Amino acid sequence: MAVIGATALTYADWAKRMDDGYHVAVIIELLSQTNEILDDMLVVEGNLPTGHKTTVRTGLPQATWRLLNTGVPNAKSTTAQIVDTCGNLETYSVIDKDVADLNGNTADFRLSEVKAFLEGMSQQVAATLIYGNQFINPERFSGLSPRYSTVNTANSQTAANVLDGGGTSIH
To answer: How many CB atoms neighbour CB 146 within 10 A?
Structure first.
């Protein structure tokens, strides 16, 4: 048998969220995080039904210093195509109407619950932007960590963009 209070607000939950005047209490959001990365990220509409395909330049041609009457070897740049997948992050704030209406200020009560949902989603998106890996969790998108996971240019075309801080040894 399922425990309803684990996923649905109860009268006890409602009581814990009221101040002494039976108004919606101000909740101190100790679990909130500041995720500036969400403020800085760009969002574009995908050019595929379930993702976005981009072409990136991965290498620049090398020019040649030459003397008079000497030739210049051919050179070219290199590119790679990357397909980023979409991820659907969803949740629903479901509150029994009678519980929400108890104090007469339904909107404030619902807002106090929705804030937690928005914070939870914000933290999940920020973590996925860094650590997400669609090959481990196919419902998510890949973040920065799997894209820039090596400094070895023989293993990855993006390795040239990784700075090695030298913090790999344990003392």
So the answer is: 14
